[in-house]
Specification:
The protein is mainly beta. The chain has 1 helix and 6 strands, in the order βαβββββ. The protein has a domain of 39 residues. The two termini are 19 Å apart.
Length: 77
Amino acid sequence: MDPGSSAEILYYKAFQKMGLQQVDIKLSGAVMFGFNNESVPVIGEIELFFTSRPINLVANFILFGSNSPYNALLSRV
């Protein structure tokens, strides 16, 4: 694992619950591999604006189509 690499990950169920629109997704046919070497389907990428007081941020999230107990995974800022 490369400790210099990071990715903001959003799972599709969270995407749906947030009421986001399909038209905002930049589609991708990519597949990523997790820590256990299982393939994870990538739907695409989405740019989201959010606030981590007092800072307003913009982040590009990779949208995963798999199930997870998490809603999103964020790297350190």
